[in-house]
Amino acid sequence: MTKSKELLIIGAGETAQLAFEYFTFDSDFKVVAFCVEKKYLEQREIFGLPVIPIEEIEHEYNPKDYFAFIAISSTGINRVRTRLYQTIKRKNYQIASYISSKAFIWRNVEIGENCFIMENNVLQHLVKIGNNVILWSGNHIGHRSIVHDNCFISSHVVVSGSSEIKDNCFLGVNSTINDGVRIAEDCVIGSGAVIISDTEPGMVYVGCPGKPIKKAVTSPSRST
């Protein structure tokens, strides 16, 4: 595959290293560096590539010439990834997305920037995916469903048709969202939970049917 675009990965942890693997072997991007906030700079090299402070990236990598991808996990209900996404946007970098060649994406699906869509995801007719969304492997996003910005959907989640996932949500492994259900912003849906009706914002839901048990924690933590 021809590498026609050069990419900076924002982050240096497991998610960033996984992003390096996928972008390197299944995209037309060439990763040239990793970037972290200066206070978290613990190593100077990963996979033979430099690790540089985010505060200095414009001096070495002109935003006109490079793409960036923010490869941070769901920490603080995606708050850390969202903050760094906004930081890089203000620096005027072009923002990349990764879509696995082994995902099924119907022709009229819309996908925003800084999305990471791994293998065996199914995105059906008229699905809309916002910005800064991670879809781990093996999910089903049903027809006409909408996943808004800054969400993280882990593996083998079923989002049934005409559902809506609002901003900053986390959906745990094997959770299920019934047809037409609205997941309010800042919700955490626990592993294996079955959500059959609209949720309240900022709550953790578990069980079958899913019930709220406590407030979700949104406090941001370190950026790697």
Chain-wise SSE layout:
Layout: E1 5-10, H1 14-25, E2 29-36, E3 45-46, E4 49-53, H2 57-60, E5 67-70, H3 75-90, E6 94-95, E7 98-99, E8 104-105, E9 110-111, E10 116-117, E11 122-123, E12 128-129, E13 134-135, E14 140-141, E15 146-147, E16 152-153, E17 158-159, E18 164-165, E19 170-171, E20 176-177, E21 182-183, E22 188-189, E23 194-195, E24 203-206, E25 211-215
Parallel strand pairs: 1-2, 1-5, 2-4, 5-6, 7-10, 8-11, 9-12, 10-13, 11-14, 12-15, 13-16, 14-17, 15-18, 16-19, 17-20, 18-21, 19-22, 20-23, 22-24
Antiparallel strand pairs: 3-4, 24-25
Kindly summarize this structure in a few lines.
This protein has 224 residues and is an alpha/beta fold. The protein contains three helices and 25 strands. Helix content is 14%, strand content 31%.
What number is the mean pLDDT? 96
The spatial strand order of the largest sheet comes to 7-10-13-16-19-22-24-25
- Give the SSE string: EHEEEHEHEEEEEEEEEEEEEEEEEEEE
Give the tally of β-strands. 25
> Can you tell me the CATH architecture of the largest domain?
3 Solenoid
